[in-house]
Amino acid sequence: VANRYDLQLVDDACHAMGGMYGATKIGSCSHSDVSTLSFHPVKHITTGEGGSILTNNADIAQKVARLRSHGTVRGKERIKDWEGPWQYDMTELGYNYRLTDLQCALGLSQIRKLDAFVQRRRTLAQYYNQLFSGSEFFRSPTEKEGVTHSYHLYVVRADFQRMRVSRSELFTGCKKNNVLLQVHYRPVVLNSYYRNRAINVGAEERLPVSMAYYRQAVSLPMYPQLTFQDIERVYRALSACLV
Ligand SMILES: Cc1ncc(COP(=O)(O)O)c(C=O)c1O
């Protein structure tokens, strides 16, 4: 679509770091102009907070670097009324959006562990898949041919009608056993900020797939420190809600 209409494409890869699409790594911008990553603590690697913007386009890279530092530039070649080497020039309205050096140090150490973190998540996902295979109530996420999922989340689709348990009952039942579930995500259009906007009228009817997904989505615990025993405990907690 972007090629047909000559659009610039930003891919939000905040959930996908360490994943692959065919032979290309997510974030390599092989299909987009810009790719974004998040280093929030729940993500594949963390710097506490923050993230990065990846691009192969030199103009975009320079612009992002400028915007990160107050919209300023340095260097004789970039400044028209050059006065001397002390000079910087603010050429546009920018932000103060730099990671601190301490955060960068953490990020550098974390990035060395990325492959191991992703591998661990994949191993855990396989174990979940194994436990849910053949389940009439829970459907595991699928990994399309040629895609390497990095499992930031592990979202199952739960057939609440068939199991005759509501999502609230599943959540509270699991919580009693100290297993915390989540939903990723509630469709944006359901938020009250958007709900009453004219553009949003009838959105729920116009987005039947999103709504169907939302009704069934349940995120199970997924992080590298999780053990197989933890996963068995999650599975038992879910199963206990069904009887
Ligand atoms: C898909 C997606 N995009 C963007 C963000 C925002 O990332 P950050 O919290 O680093 O701004 C998040 C955060 O959870 C996310 O999940």
Describe the structure.
With 243 residues, the protein is of the alpha+beta class. The protein is 37% helix and 14% strand. The protein has 10 helices and 11 strands. The strands form 4 sheets. It has a 3-stranded mixed β-sheet with strand order 1-4-5. The chain has a 3-stranded antiparallel β-sheet with strand order 3-2-9, with no helix packed on it. Strands 8-10-11 form a 3-stranded antiparallel β-sheet. A hairpin with a 2-residue loop joins strand 2 (20-21) and strand 3. Helix 4 (114-132) packs parallel to helix 10 (228-241). The N and C termini lie far apart (48 Å). The model has no long low-confidence stretch (mean pLDDT 95). Pyridoxal-5'-phosphate is lined by residues 12, 14-15, 38, 40, 51.
Condensed summary:
This protein is an alpha+beta fold and 243 residues long. The chain has helices spanning 2-5, 58-68, 101-111, 114-132, 160-163, 167-176, 192-195, 203-206, 208-216, 228-241; strands at residues 10-12, 20-21, 24-25, 34-38, 51-54, 72-74, 88-90, 138-139, 147-148, 154-158, 217-220. Residues 12, 14-15, 38, 40, 51 line the site of pyridoxal-5'-phosphate.
Catalogue the unreliable spans. none
Largest sheet: 3 strands, mixed
The total beta strand count reads 11
Rounded Rg: 22 Å
* Helix and strand run: HEEEEEHEEHHEEEHHHHHEH
Mean pLDDT: 95
Which small-molecule ligands are present, each listed once?
pyridoxal-5'-phosphate
Helix tally equals: 10
Strand order of the largest sheet: 1-4-5
Structural class, by secondary structure, is alpha+beta
**Could you tell me the strand content as a percent range?**
5-15%
Estimate percent helicity.
25-40%
Q: End-to-end distance, in Å?
A: 48 Å
| Outline | elongated
